Give the backbone structure.
Amino acid sequence: MAKHHVFPMWLGYLHLNPLRKLTHNPDKILGPYVNEAMTVADIGCAMGLFSLPLAKMVGANGKVICVDIEENMIRSLEKRVQKAGLSGRIQSIICNDGSLCLDDFKGKIDFALAIGVEHEIQGSSKFFSELNQAMKPAGRLLVAAPKWFVSETDFERTVSVAKHNGFEVTDRPQMKGCMTVLLQKCSNKKESEK
């Protein structure tokens, strides 16, 4: 993984502001991709802006794997999960600079999202390689980066790295203020390099 930048706690709280749902409504953004009983990974979950709505979408038979490098963010997320009564659906993982720590989930993830973590994964083959291994065949990955923080060149470089690590572009969904790509795990690596 690329060297990470600390995402400040105060910004985590700001992201949870209910007004944010006016521009980044988790149900509208993720609803087309997430169904009941799925296993979903929220990479760079912070305090769970998308994690808790995902837990409701996957239902009692689904699972949300919440991954973040910041222990304080994970601890805050766990408190919110407990308060919401969703503990049985969410598993939190504190990853590190070298790994997403998803070894226990090889071939089990139906859908993953990496929203606002572009600055941490730029050009990281290891990030996409690990995610590819964790994904089920034809698993999908939604990557989004804020336009004000990440250049289009850097974002497209990241898409290229994803393609060289077993993903193909299937869509460019719209997300206000973000560059966005929907990727799908290829049946074989050569397909992704086309």
Notes: The CA atoms of residues 35 and 139 lie 13 Å apart. The radius of gyration is 15 Å. Residues 24-185 form a domain with the Rossmann fold fold (CATH 3.40.50.150).
